[in-house]
Specification:
The structure is a homodimer.
Chain A (H helix, E strand, L loop, with lengths): L21 H20 L6 H8 L3 H8 L2 H12 L12 H17 L4 H9 L3 H27 L9 H18 L8 H14 L13
Helix pairs in contact in A: 1-2, 1-4, 2-3, 4-6, 4-7, 5-8, 5-9, 6-7, 7-8, 8-9
């Protein structure tokens, strides 16, 4: 799901102590350094040492406060929002899902992609895994309204399972761009949206789903 | 896609030198040790040192031959086949896809899961990434016949894009079990198969796909 990392950098979230003080300044420098290091070396080259050196902050401080590179990436997401992201609202389910997938594809193909880095980090950092799970839960929850609106417009059967529909619509992007590393395909967002929309119209996400071999 | 790691261990592949000699014995011991270490500590606890110690082989030998834990996992897959895996052939597309997804779900939920370990490793090891990509390519290619048979039976429109259908059918399993870590859902294999089957019948994987907002 779209992550907030493409938003214009907000002012750093309220620091734990002394507003605008040393704690907040260190955080801002360190997170700037994370972005810059990702841009320069990619996720594989992101190290606590590199971030500390670029930020001009003692290594021990970075370890104490963020633990590992997953912790840095999780905090980068946190800092990007005051999160007011809202799902697309185009008036059609298919267009909404396509727009959503466009955003996801953009965030996964960005150079550097904070979204890709956080997913990679989630395999070795509990902090990154937790941040990633919270982000997905939040995004899928916010997107449920997109299915509710389609039901209200009469585009979908009542009792459509919004979560299953949203996962079906978005999963091919993660599978191809994060796991399989297939070359970027400009049609992928639309194709995945079409698949989910047609399946939804045929009742695939009903409780219970229809028998596809009548 | 199902990996060959659940197959009964084949005899180790032909060693580079001296059939049945020292090279083959070392490989067999090391790969046994990889399985055992994964079972004992999971992927996060898999180290070159732990494998070398358990196999009774010098650390330098393990590094020289396999480079990193991704290299060990890639070789574990190689050793499992002489790969004669064939996709399900039940006589119905929906049943075939369900059976395929059952296999994938099993391989991702196995304790330990070589499939999960290889995916995790692919984010930090070029060898693992390459092995994973080859495995997926091979499996999706072998599965294309499953779509061709459905077309021949008249279940699907001609010109159905087999690869897109197969990815739509399987992607939700990887998204939920590998990336989102949602709790295992026994209905997931069937649900994902139903979605893809209904979408396919509605022409979602045709060239070109139909307009879902007629």
């Amino acid at each position: 799901m779209p992550d907030p990392s493409h938003a214009q950098p907000h002012p750093a979230a309220p620091p734990e102590r002394r507003p605008g003080g040393r704690t907040a300044r260190i955080r801002a420098h360190v997170l700037d350094a994370v972005r810059a290091e990702l841009g320069a070396h990619g996720y594989e080259g992101l190290t606590m040492e590199g971030v500390a050196a670029r930020a001009g902050v003692h290594r021990a401080t970075v370890y104490r406060r963020w633990q590992d590179t997953g912790g840095l990436l999780a905090d980068l997401l946190d800092a990007a929002g005051q999160d007011d992201w809202q799902p697309p609202n185009t008036g059609s389910l298919h267009e909404d899902l396509t727009a959503l997938n466009d955003e996801i594809q953009q965030s996964l193909l960005a150079q550097p992609s904070i979204a890709q880095a956080l997913i990679a980090a989630s395999f070795r950092s509990a902090r990154a895994a937790h941040a990633q799970q919270q982000l997905w839960e939040d995004r899928y929850q916010r997107c449920e309204i997109l299915v509710e609106r389609a039901i209200q417009r009469g585009e979908l059967p009542h009792h459509t399972d919004a979560r299953r529909l949203l996962i079906a619509a978005t999963a091919p992007l993660y599978h191809q761009l994060v796991l399989m590393h297939t070359p970027p395909d400009p049609h992928l967002p639309t194709h995945a949206a079409t698949t989910a929309t047609l399946a939804a119209s045929a009742g695939a996400f009903n409780h219970p789903p229809p028998n596809p071999n009548p």
